[in-house]
Each structure stands twice: as structure tokens, then as C-alpha cells.
Specification:
2 copies of one chain form a homodimer. Chain A folds into 2 domains: 1-323, ANL, N-terminal domain (Rossmann fold); 328-420, 2-Layer Sandwich (GMP Synthetase, Chain A, domain 3), CATH 3.30.300.30. Chain A has 10 helices and 21 strands. Chain A has helices at 4-7, 11-30, 62-67, 101-117, 136-148, 160-169, 181-191, 213-223, 337-344, 380-394; strands at residues 83-87, 95-99, 125-128, 151-153, 174-178, 203-207, 226-233, 238-244, 251-253, 258-263, 277-283, 294-300, 302-304, 316-317, 322-323, 328-330, 333-335, 350-361, 364-373, 399-403, 418-420. In chain A, the strands form 5 sheets. A 9-stranded mixed sheet of chain A has the order 4-3-5-6-7-8-9-14-13, with helices on both faces. A 4-stranded antiparallel sheet of chain A has the order 10-11-12-15. A 4-stranded mixed sheet of chain A has the order 20-19-18-21, with helices on one face. In chain A, a hairpin with a 4-residue loop joins β7 (226-233) and β8 (238-244). In chain A, α4 packs across α5 (136-148) and α6 (160-169) crosses α7 (181-191). Chain A starts with a helix and ends with a strand. The interface between A and B is medium-sized, with 33 and 34 residues. The complex binds zinc ion (ZN) (2 copies). Chains A, B: Keywords: Ligase, Nucleotide-binding, Phosphopantetheine, Phosphoprotein.
């Protein structure tokens, strides 16, 4: 562990810290330059008697942060900030997160905990594959590795063959990447006779996208690595909010820095342990962009507040199933692309390259699943079984098109899984 | 100044520090893991009685560093290193520079001095436009800004319209970029009615390419900024080896960290002050890749060892004219692309987008200068004058093709100035 004392605090101490820091965050925000303080103008830190009172505070949404563009939602003067990141935002106005020196140190701390949770020490060599820049991924790994003291290979995005060459030549032991990228690494490795087992690579820390357990199993087998699922976003201060551990019994969220709630995506009602809903994040130590009850739109559930086999005591949540924005509604059925992925990748003959094409044909929804084959594709019997499994899950018939390897365009950054032609 | 004490040391103290650190570097290298120690196996630190004895030490070449790939030329164990950068190397094996914690701190220090020399303080907002990653440019500015404490907008390369938007929206006061990139910024600004004078931008720190005084004047006028010429390369520890100051009387090289010599590119003989030749760099404080007399292939001359108007006492060298690798030999005449640029950009009707196409036609060299026009191009009279000026400089007739704006492909990263079809 990077910070054994904090990572193994007894529950009551975690909650004591959380309560104190929540009150401080409220006081800090109320005295700040942020326009978000309007939302809590009638709330006073001493109103919060227990963590249970959190639920009476108003939510903060992505639109609230967009409305602040560029700096209206930032709590400190920009000239007191040293760094910034920006959420790409497929549409419209981006969200900025400005960071003070303390924020950068906080980010380094939580990312160092994540790296250590994935088994890294200062002796590891970490190749960073998310892009560096406005996107928070590259720099998140950078600050974590800097804090942990390990050797950084700052590869950034793309140039897959070069990435493989560096892994081998430099004795790289761990990679950080966008979750879909290992599929590309494996593909280029196969094309070039590159054998991951002849390298020192043993860990892949993946995030920024929803990825299924089946995809996980697939890349662990093919790359001979152990994968770790890391979460976090620009708004909360970047990647590093939490990560799963070797026990693989949920994603630990660093509770001395964040409070996690799960709420009903429509009613906003707080849901009990084990029930699936939207993750809501309250920051406890951020200065540039302190957040009260931020609606992340990510869907998960709380697994346990009990100590984990790994020794860490911080809450565990389920791997993220999808974002409310990514949820598809086809013929009245709601589902996430990652759920389709999980079904497809049970078949060895299918590759982790797929697209869901949704159209409106004569007033009716139609979905075509385009998926690349690998190793000869499916037998007739498998094809039949796949059709049945999809029907069981979706409750409607979808068309399956199995296409040759390399058909679906490889893109830098996040994979394009859905082409919804219904939207104009 | 970032470090007034060191930046204004009297000459004799600079030289005292240099002599001591040179001996230490030799001792360090001799006791290191680097295969480069072979070169100095018969030399002992105490053999160096004065800085004048430097000339008896052997040179280090880029090929020496390539031969070490990946780690043979590195003086410390890779597991004692925390960072690395890599020279792209248009052909063949790349050169790695591995950095210890002290090296990263040294880089931060020299880059902070450079930023301060360009007039920046902790209150500035610096948009970093070179790419982050294996190339050293982005991270060099990052560490410098981190050390100086200014606000970093980590834009990275490309997305020019977004770059302009951020400059305006975020109140950016300074940019760091590859020298040819402002031409693209100006072009996209004009296409989009963007007015640099309605922004807070006042400084552009440019490097990584050779750029003429005429280009400099052009972008200063069009962007309303003051430009600063920054030098440095992966091998020496990255961008930040030196920068010119407001006095604009040469590029200061940080002499407590580096010794500069100018040598004859062919004979290797050390040249006296004022004579043009190849820059040779000896590092005095680097640990991962200490260099004795590294042949940079960059052409410059020493301007003065006297204190500068700005108060700094560190040596001043001329702006880099070109790299020996970039030197063209056409019809027996040697010249640099930047010298052609300087002639073209005297004409307001020509844009800073040009290419020199060199072919062998029936056994004879032919050069065509393709250059984009702007604001209506050249009058017949100007065209005649340009032809004459080029002939005066080159001593042979070249063909000039003036093409519409946007004809020459815009590339991310360094501009492609020469297409030499003679080489197979
Ligand atoms: Zn655990
Ligand atoms: Zn000066």
C-alpha cells in the first residue's frame, strides 16, 4: 500500500474524517468565488450533524459546471491555480477543472495509491498510453508514478507498434491505458509476431471506458497480465478516484478524499447498499473544483463497507456498468453496450471490435450488431447459440453481422461502440 | 530572473564552477555503468587543469548514443531513473535519455530560468503546444512552468481552433510551441476572424526548429507578441539549454549546467569567438546521460562572454542557423533552408509556408522553391527582385512557384521544408 495508515482506517475513523472534511468543504465553497455556492447559500456547515445529512444537500450536475465556463464554477482565483484539465465533451461546452498545488498533490496521492493497489512499487516501469494534454488520463498516471517514484515511459496515445517495441526494449512492467486499447495492442502484436510473454509486462491498469468482465478475461489471457479497473473523471479531479484490488471484489474509492452515494437516476433518492443506481461524488479535499453531490451519470452499486481481503477498508463499489448517457433504448428495452460486449466475448471466435448500429426502419427500431471474427469465427451451432443468448438478454431479435478482422475502423482514444441513426 | 544569484555570477566564478563540475562529471562517468566511459578510460579528473583542457577530451556523437540503445549509454541503473524522453530520429534507432529525480529537477530549473527570461512569472498562464510524450518539448515546458509556479494549459499539439479558443477564454498570456506552429495559428485565426490583439497573449517561446529573423518579425507583427528563441534537445536533457532575452543579443546558455564550444564541423578544431561552427555541449550536472563534448550538429557561433544588458552573465551564442544534417548542397553550393526563408519572408505577399524541391534532371541539380502567397502575392516587379535576391544568395537560378494559400500540406509537429528527390 502507498499509504497504509489511511488505506486501512477503521470505518468509524473514515466517517469521522469524512464528516469533518465535508463541513470544511461546505465552508470553503461558501466563502469561495464559485457560483456553485449559490446552491448552498442556506446551508451552514454546522447543519451537517452526521454523514446521513448529506442527502439533504442539492446535487451538482455537469450542466452546472458547463454554465460556469470558463472559471465561474472554480472556487479559487485562476491565478492561484497551476494546472487544468478539460472534459472533451462530445457536444457543446467543455468542463474545466482548475487545480491548485494542493490539488495536484492530492491527485498524485490518490493515483499513487491506485498504482500501489495494482501491485506497483518504485521499482516498476510504467508505460503511459492515454494521451497527455487536456484529457486527464496521461497526466493522472504521470503524477501517480511521480509520487510513487517509478520509472515513466511517456508514450502517450497511438503508434501501437512503437508501444510494443518500448514495452519489450525498456523492460516495461506495467501499462496504463484506455480500456479498449489493449485490443489494439494484441492485434498489432499478432500481426507482428510479438509475444507478450517474452516481455516483463505483468500489469495493465485500464479505465476511461466501460469494459466487460469477458473482455477483461480475454486480454488477461492474451497478454499474460493482470488487469486493474481504475475510475475517475475530469470533474472529480481526474483518474484515480478508485481502483479494484487483487481480491477483485469491487473498486475501492478513497474515502478520505471522496464520499460516494448511489442514487436513483431519475428520482435522485439515495439507494441502499447493493442497489444499482447513479454514482454521486462529493469531494472532501479538492480546492479548485470542490463538488457537492456531483451526478457522475455512471451506473454502479455499493458492494461493501466491510474491510477487504487486501486489507483496505475503503468502500467497494461495483465495476461501472455504463453511463446513463450511453444507455441505449431499443424497442423499449434499456441496456448498455458493455452488456452486449459481455455476451459476444464469450465466443473465442469473436474479437473485441464491435459496433451496434441502430436504425429506424418504417417506424420501427432495428439493431444490427457488427462484430469482427477472429480465429475462424463461429460455427453454425455457435451462431445459433449466440442468437439465442442475445434474444434472451434483449427480448428482441437483432441482426448479427460477422465481419473480417480489421473491418471496424481503429480510432485513437475511446472506441466508438454505437452508431445510432435514429437521432438527427 | 528565476535564479538571480546563478544567472549573474561573475565570469571567473562561472568558470570555477565549470571546472569543478567538469571534473566531477568525468569522475562520475568513469565510475558509472555507461559504455561511454570507455572513451575516457585514460583520462583522470585531475588531468583537467583548466577549462582549456576540455579540448583534449574525445567527442561524443549521436551514433555513440544510438549504439547504447536502449540503456548502454546511461550512467545510472534504469531503476534509479524516473523519466525518459526519446529523440524521434527520422531514420533508424532512437536515442533515449533517462532521467533521475535530480535530472528532472535540473530540467525544471533551467526551463524556469528560460520562462523567466521570457518575462514570465508565477502569475502567467502558459499554454503548452508542443506534444507531450516521448518528444521532450511538452514536458520541458511543463516542468519549467511547474518550477516557476505558473498556470499550465496543457493543450499539446494540434486542434488549432481549440488552441485559439483556449488562449482567449482562459486569458492565456504566453505560449510555448514548435517554431513553425505560429504560422498555422495565424492562418486559422484569419480564417475564423480571431484577433490576437483582443487576447492577453504577449509572449511566444519557440524552438525545436530553425526559424529566420524574418519569420520572427512576421509573427511578432501578426500576433502582437514578443517571441523568444529557446534551444535544447533530448540528448542534453531537453529543451531549456538556453534562450534569448529581451535584449535580443544572443541566446544565453546556462553555463553552470553546460559548457558550450564551437568547433569546425569537419576538423573538430575549437573555433574562436565569433566564428561559425558546430555547437558542442558538455553537461555539468546531468546524471542519467552525462555528456562529454556532444556534437549537436547545430550551427552557431559564440557572440559574447561579457555581461548582457539584461544583467545575465552567461555566454551568448547566435541563433541557430541550421543543423549540419539540414544543410543542402545544390549545384555545389551549401546553404540552409532557413536562409531561403529569410529571403522569401522579406516579401509581405509570401506566406511562411514553403518547400524546397530538389531534383536531378539529366545529371544536373535543379531546385524549385514552392511558396504560398498571401494578401495577393507579388507584383511583377517584386517577383523580379526576389529572383535576383535568390540568385545573389545562391549563385544559381532556382525556379519559384507561387501557389495559393493552403497548398502546402499542414503537418503536426516539425514542418517539412525540403523534398530532396536526389536521394534514393
Ligand atoms: Zn481490496
Ligand atoms: Zn541577456
Amino acid at each position: 500500500m502507498f499509504n497504509p495508515k489511511m488505506e486501512t482506517l477503521p470505518r468509524e475513523e473514515i466517517e469521522k474524517i469524512q464528516l469533518g472534511r465535508l463541513r470544511k468543504t461546505i465552508a470553503f465553497l461558501k466563502n469561495s468565488k464559485s457560483m456553485l455556492k449559490e446552491k448552498i447559500k442556506d446551508i451552514h456547515p454546522e447543519d451537517i450533524k452526521s454523514l446521513d445529512d448529506l442527502k439533504y444537500l442539492p446535487f451538482t450536475t455537469k450542466d452546472d459546471l458547463r454554465d460556469g465556463y470558463p472559471f465561474g464554477h472554480i472556487a479559487v482565483d485562476p491565478s492561484d491555480c497551476v494546472r487544468m484539465h478539460m472534459s472533451s465533451g462530445t457536444t457543446g461546452i467543455p468542463v474545466l477543472n482548475l487545480m491548485t498545488k494542493n490539488d495536484v498533490a492530492q491527485w498524485g496521492e490518490i493515483m499513487a495509491r491506485c498504482l500501489a493497489c495494482a501491485g506497483l512499487t518504485s521499482k516498476d516501469r510504467l508505460q503511459i498510453m492515454p494521451s497527455f494534454g487536456l484529457f486527464n488520463g496521461g497526466f493522472g498516471f504521470h503524477y501517480g508514478a511521480e509520487t510513487l517514484g517509478c520509472f515513466i515511459v511517456p508514450a502517450g496515445a497511438g503508434r501501437t507498434l512503437m508501444q510494443l517495441k518500448l514495452i519489450k526494449d525498456l523492460g516495461v512492467t506495467a501499462i496504463g491505458a484506455i480500456a479498449s486499447y489493449p485490443a489494439r495492442l494484441i492485434e498489432v502484436a499478432q500481426e507482428n509476431g510479438f509475444d507478450f510473454r517474452k516481455t516483463n509486462l505483468r500489469v495493465a491498469i485500464l479505465g476511461a471506458e466501460t469494459w466487460s468482465d469477458e473482455y477483461r478475461k480475454r486480454i488477461e489471457e492474451m497478454m499474460g497480465v493482470k488487469t486493474f479497473d481504475i475510475i475517475g473523471m475530469t470533474e472529480t479531479g481526474g483518474v484515480g478516484l478508485g481502483i479494484d484490488c487483487e481480491a477483485r471484489k469491487g473498486i475501492h474509492v478513497w474515502e478520505d478524499h471522496y464520499i460516494i452515494e448511489i442514487v436513483h437516476p431519475e428520482t435522485g433518492e439515495v439507494l441502499p447498499l447493493g442497489e444499482e443506481g447513479e454514482i454521486v461524488v462529493t469531494t472532501l479535499t479538492r480546492e479548485g473544483l470542490p463538488l457537492i453531490r456531483y451526478r457522475t451519470r455512471d451506473i454502479s452499486k455499493i458492494i461493501s463497507y466491510e474491510p477487504c481481503e487486501c486489507g483496505r477498508t475503503h468502500v467497494r463499489i461495483d465495476r461501472i456498468k455504463g453511463r446513463t448517457d450511453d444507455m441505449l433504448k431499443v424497442k423499449g428495452v434499456n441496456f448498455y453496450p458493455s452488456q452486449i460486449e459481455a455476451i459476444l466475448l464469450k465466443y473465442k471466435g469473436l474479437a473485441p471490435y464491435y459496433q451496434l448500429v441502430i436504425e429506424n426502419v418504417k417506424g420501427k427500431d432495428e439493431m444490427t450488431i457488427i462484430v469482427e471474427k477472429t480465429d475462424g469465427g463461429l460455427t453454425d451451432q455457435e451462431m445459433e447459440r449466440l442468437n439465442l443468448e442475445l434474444y434472451d438478454f434483449l427480448g428482441f431479435r437483432s441482426k448479427i453481422q460477422i465481419v473480417p478482422e480489421g473491418t471496424i475502423q481503429r480510432v485513437p482514444g475511446k472506441a466508438v461502440r454505437v452508431i445510432d441513426k435514429r437521432k438527427k
